Amino acid sequence: MLNLIKLELRRMNIKSVALSFLLINTAIVSMMMLISIEPEAVTEFLTSIDDVQMLIELLVIAAFVIYAAVLMSHIIIEEFKNKTITLLFMYPVSRRKLLMAKLIIISLFTFFFIIASVLIVYYSFSVFNRFYMFTPLELGYTLSSDYMLHLVLLAVACVGLSLIPLFFGMRKYSVPATITSSIFIVALLSSSVNTDDTNLFSITAIPILLGVIGFITANLVVNQAVKKDF
Amino acid sequence: MTYILRTHQLTKAYRGEEVVSEVSMNIRHGEIYGFLGPNGAGKTTIMKMMTNLVKPTGGEIEILGEKVHATSYELLKRIGSMIEYPIFYEKLTARKNLELHCEYMGYYDKKAIKETLELVNLVNIENKPVKDFSLGMKQRLGLARAIITKPEILILDEPVNGLDPGGMHELREIFIKLSRQYGLTLLISSHNLAEIEQIADTIGVIRKGKLIKEASMEEIRNTHANHLELVVRDYPKAAFVLENKLQVSNFRVKEDKGIIHIYDHHVSQNDVIQSMVQNQVEIASINYKKQPLEDYFLQLIEGDRSHAELN
């Protein structure tokens, strides 16, 4: 399995993935700062540390759930579309393992990207905040272990829900369907439920439920591909 | 000689409709097996079943006497294949494509890549991305990929399709070399007899999913290619003479033209002339004819077309 993952990585363009990661982080930090320039926005969104962290999480999750769909398009959907998957399926390796290797890569990347980005954006923002005083909040450098646990759980749930678009993409091996459905999921989750700043993400059960649905979907898709004739 | 690859009553049905039905092929060790049939006859499906891309709905495949399952990976390692249009990771270079192939196949020999590319006459292109290749180059690279891990069986689906005559000739030379020098067994499909007639040892003909003929080229050449063509006015009498005076039974009369084809090799031209003259049958002409194999196979492949039209 490890070998399969390594081979899969060799076919990917890791440099461009790393570059995307950096660019997305830069974009999110810039966005946070743009929001902070506007005093009205600060009073609405950034009244407490919790608010700041939630906004960061929301932006990071939105970005990387969609980015997971992009990765998925590259290493799964396009392989089926270009029929290069038939090449892999002729090898003396089980189809399930081949597909699992791909899913593991996407999952690990998404997990790592979400946690790393939340931390990167949070610390960057708190450093900038010290210099420019966007908010009077004291954004401490130490994060509680409770928060870290919450972050890990959130990342796992996001890994799961980022797999849901696979279902839509694999129906006709369509890249646009994959990415559109991921955007749709993100839009749905981050929309406000009511006037105060809760959204579907802040109800913990929902991302977790969707996460579970995502893992089930992925399993379903793999089962189908294993049985299929090419 | 032992069989290296056999199928027993191999069947594949899609939604109840059989595209391959009860095909039993026998491929001998070291031979070139020409797999002939019109487009859509089921050649590709059979080859895909042999390479584990399509699962049979009935029957079985046997490689080196062992039954193949979907998880018989050790057996699959011994097959090299190129099925349909050669597919590559287009953005990667030729070398990288081959490297990855070797890794997935569990074959580690760094020199193999260079040697194989030389064998198929692809030089100085290893570091070019495959998307810049012409069809002929891709086909040769596909062949290189199929043989790089030194398999025992090579399954090639229409390998010379779309190549110019020079390219076809070159590939044919390579096939012969692989078979005669390296002892590989080749299964080559084609819809065009001329492509494989010269190199195949055995021919299997498939039509509408059924294997309708499997015979060695030698046998086919002997029994069907040469015949004596006799043109007479009084063909009933000629037929009578042939049957009763010369004891020839293997002949066919084309009544409308007064032509008789004699397939029996024991009777010579002289014998026929002599007995015809003795029995006062006037001969318009007599000569040896070589029926092109093409006609024979066309007959086989399109055999029941007239039948179908009647229905």
Task: Provide a short characterization of the protein structure.
Chain A is an all-alpha fold. Chain A is 79% helix and 0% strand.
Task: Describe the protein.
The complex is a heterodimer of chains A (230) and B (311). Chain A has one domain (2-225). Chain A contains ten helices and no strands. Chain A has helices at 2-11, 14-37, 39-45, 49-81, 84-89, 95-132, 145-161, 164-171, 175-190, 205-227. The mean pLDDT of chain A is 87. In chain B, 36% of the residues lie in helices and 28% in strands. In chain B, helix 4 (110-119) crosses helix 5. In chain B, the strands form three sheets. In chain B, strands 7-8-9-4-10-11 form a six-stranded mixed beta sheet, with helices on both faces. In chain B, strands 1, 2, 3, 5 and 6 form a five-stranded antiparallel beta sheet that branches. The chains are: A mainly alpha (230), B alpha/beta (311). At the A-B interface, helix 1 and helix 5 of A face helix 2 and helix 3 of B.
Please tell me the total number of domains of chain A. Answer: 1
Question: How are the strands of the largest sheet of chain B arranged?
Answer: 7-8-9-4-10-11
Structural class by SSE content of chain A: mainly alpha
- Mind describing the biggest β-sheet of chain A? none
Largest interface: A-B, 19 and 24 residues
Order of helices and strands of chain B: EEEEHEEHEHHHEHEHEEHEHEEHEHH
Q: Determine Rg of chain B (CA atoms, Å).
A: 24 Å
Measured by DSSP, the beta-strand proportion of chain A falls in under 5%
Specify the structural class of chain B: alpha/beta
What pattern of helices and strands is seen along the backbone of chain A? HHHHHHHHHH
Keywords (chain A): Membrane, Transmembrane, Transmembrane helix
Organism (chain A): Jeotgalibacillus terrae
Protein name (chain A): ABC transporter permease
Pfam families (chain A): ABC2_membrane_4 (PF12730)
